[in-house]
Design brief:
The structure is a single chain. The chain is of the alpha+beta class. The chain has six helices and three strands.
Length: about 120
């Protein structure tokens, strides 16, 4: 038995914001697509169904300073961002600077962990 579009929309309307985010992530993984615009629209639809306190879903990873081991931090920035050596070095030298913007909480935490282990001070905003 196939579900109609209305059945699917009603089921999504009954979900919490976090459940909708998890659903979108699962769909992105399954179908190999990115639904950035849909993520922004889905919480608005869920909020219309019931007032829900919005939880921040996108984070910016900010490199505050390099405490030690600048070379290791540059390597970590290159790994995280895919930047070339000069671009990564410029980003590290220009601290405080944004390493990545609009990433999920889990990805932001992983990036922060890698940069801190390399010797940087990092903020999530």
């Amino acid at each position: 038995m196939a579900l109609s579009k209305d059945d699917i929309l009603n089921a999504i309307a009954d979900m919490s914001v976090m459940q909708v985010v998890e659903l979108v992530q699962a769909m992105e993984e399954k179908f190999g697509v990115t639904a950035a615009a849909a993520v922004a629209a889905a919480p608005a639809a869920a909020g219309a169904a019931a007032p829900v306190a919005e939880e921040k879903t996108e984070f910016n990873v900010i490199l505050s300073s390099v405490v030690e081991k600048k070379v290791n931090v540059i390597k970590a920035v290159r790994t995280v961002t895919g930047l070339g050596l000069k671009e990564a070095k410029d980003l590290v030298d220009g601290a405080p600077s944004s390493v990545k913007e609009g990433v999920s909480k889990a990805e932001a935490e992983e990036i922060k962990k890698q940069l801190v282990e390399a010797g940087a001070t990092v903020e999530l905003k």
